[in-house]
Recover the amino acids of this structure.
């Protein structure tokens, strides 16, 4: 079955006001990232030592979870557009991936704090907890948005709200994913 | 499998996962922590992934040209700036 999954050309996903918020968030995080990289450049050995305390496998797993969660949500938008009944299940799967991310992040934080690597342990630690903490707030907001979107499906899987709602909710969730892609690179890989 | 790959969303996800695994694999390269080019390369890969998320998942591919260009411009500028800072 061929499905039309794309929006009309020239269509702003969600609504214009949402994109003002998205670009504002991107600008703020960009400033954070620049500050981090300047600090990193001035203290490479210390930051490398801090990075060595990270569990990079958990960072990778979290990245794969958010990418897959975004995939589920993007598929949900496509399903709603063609009237398929799989949208609610796909949004649920996206929420599941987000909850998985939160669980792994909680494990990471627990292990770091148990090892005595708290917020003020080092300059790297300050950046690690600040970046991942602010990002985690975005994850919680995104999960709330997705949960609300999920509630707009009826018992037969029809989306009963306007398409702008699921598009906008999806766009915010993809922003959460997008920000993590940069955080993962800067904190775990660089 | 072929029908799975014909869908842009699916293809984008595969590319994103593959790029993530490729970046992660660079951690195994000797001198990873000190070779600045590797760090810069991972920043560039990250922002290429960011662009793909925006273009495909966020559907900017179908958005008005000015919005698409604004996002692409931000991704290029931020990516270049952060990659460049790897060499400070």
């Amino acid at each position: 079955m061929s499905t039309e999954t794309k929006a009309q050309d020239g269509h702003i996903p969600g609504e214009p006001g949402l994109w003002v918020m998205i670009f504002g968030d991107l600008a703020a995080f960009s400033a954070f990232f620049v500050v981090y990289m300047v600090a990193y450049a001035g203290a490479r050995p210390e930051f490398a030592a801090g990075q060595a305390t990270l569990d990079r496998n958990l960072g990778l797993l979290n990245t794969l979870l958010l990418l897959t969660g975004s995939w589920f949500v993007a598929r949900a938008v496509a399903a709603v557009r063609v009237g398929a009944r799989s949208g609610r299940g796909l949004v649920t799967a996206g929420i599941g991936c987000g909850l998985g991310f939160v669980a792994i992040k909680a494990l990471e934080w627990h292990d770091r704090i148990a090892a005595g690597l708290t917020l003020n342990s080092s300059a790297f630690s300050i950046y690690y907890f600040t970046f991942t903490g602010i990002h985690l707030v975005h994850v919680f907001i995104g999960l709330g948005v997705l949960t609300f979107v999920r509630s707009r499906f009826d018992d037969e899987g029809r989306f009963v709200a306007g398409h702008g709602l699921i598009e906008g909710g999806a766009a915010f969730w993809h922003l959460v994913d997008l920000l993590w892609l940069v955080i993962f690179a800067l904190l775990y890989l660089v | 499998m072929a029908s799975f790959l014909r869908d842009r969303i699916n293809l984008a996800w595969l590319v994103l996962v593959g790029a993530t695994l490729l970046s992660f694999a660079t951690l195994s390269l000797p001198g990873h922590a000190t070779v600045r080019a590797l760090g810069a390369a991972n920043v560039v890969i990250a922002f290429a992934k960011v662009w793909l998320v925006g273009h495909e998942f966020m559907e900017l591919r179908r958005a008005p040209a000015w919005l698409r260009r604004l996002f692409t411009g931000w991704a290029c500028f931020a990516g270049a700036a952060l990659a460049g800072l790897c060499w400070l």
Q: What stands out?
A: The two ends of chain A are 44 Å apart (CA to CA). Chain A has six helices and no strands. Chain A touches chain B through 50 residues (CB under 8 Å).
